[in-house]
Amino acid sequence: MKLYDLDVSGNCYKVRLLASLANIELELVPVDLQSGAHKKPPLSELNPLQQVPVLQDGATVLRDSQAILVYLAGTYGGLAWWPAHARGQAEIVQWLSFAGNEVEHSLCAARLVQKFAAPLDKAAALAKVPKVLSVLDQHLKANDWLAMGRPTIADCAVYPYVALASEGGVSLEGYSHIAQWMARLEALPGYLPKP
Ligand SMILES: N[C@@H](CCC(=O)N[C@@H](CS)C(=O)NCC(=O)O)C(=O)O
């Protein structure tokens, strides 16, 4: 099973993190974004959005880190990371959407500007950060994990860009519940250090 991957990408790291925690074997295929490899075949044919990560498992081809987490956990991770019942799945999807929207447009966007000079509005991204971190910190004040009272793909989806916040110029100081959650996740067997 191939993961078209970029080592510094937080979205790709979400997938590598789950694979490491859940002991799922992946063949990493590095994609050189700087030379535009994502805009040429085979990547552009596998993902018309011309982005990584992309997962290829036989005839199954998937884009979007959140979708890939669901597929890997549901197919290869047993019920630990993605439950069979809709209530638990919906609880997790709330956080997958949070990762793909709120986190992507704040912490991730700020990092893209600061680290990779992406043509995005860093001030607008940073303005969204306090609400994102407050919502997360408040949730973690009452819960050890994001969903279902145990580590799930919700944590794999949200953790990367929070852990990489300093690369976007964001301090996590004062968010003690987030810090404790990150330490819990980093202590899990199979944890893969952030890029
Ligand atoms: N929603 C997608 C976003 C993927 C994404 O933004 N990938 C970046 C690397 S982190 C990329 O390939 N950017 C190249 C481009 O957009 O030109 C996901 O969660 O996987």
Keywords:
single chain, 195 residues, alpha+beta, Glutaredoxin, Glutathione S-transferase Yfyf (Class Pi), Chain A, domain 2, 2 domains, 7 helices, 8% strand, binds glutathione
Explain the overall architecture.
Helices cover 52% and strands 8% of the residues. The radius of gyration is 16 Å and the shape is globular. A 4-stranded mixed beta sheet has the order 2-1-3-4, with helices on one face. Strand 3 and strand 4 (60-63) form a beta hairpin. The protein has 2 domains: 2-76, Glutaredoxin; 86-186, Up-down Bundle (Glutathione S-transferase Yfyf (Class Pi), Chain A, domain 2), CATH 1.20.1050.10. The protein has helices spanning 10-21, 43-46, 65-76, 86-116, 122-142, 153-163, 176-186, and strands spanning 2-5, 27-30, 54-57, 60-63. Helix 4 (86-116) packs parallel to helix 6. Glutathione binds at residues 6, 9, 11, 33, 38, 50-53, 64-66, 100.
Briefly say what this structure is.
With 195 residues, this protein is an alpha+beta fold.
Set out the fold topology.
Layout lengths: L1 E4 L4 H12 L5 E4 L12 H4 L7 E4 L2 E4 L1 H12 L9 H31 L5 H21 L10 H11 L12 H11 L9
Parallel strand pairs: 1-2
Antiparallel strand pairs: 1-3, 3-4
Helix pairs in contact: 1-3, 1-6, 4-5, 4-6, 5-7
Bound molecules: glutathione (GSH).
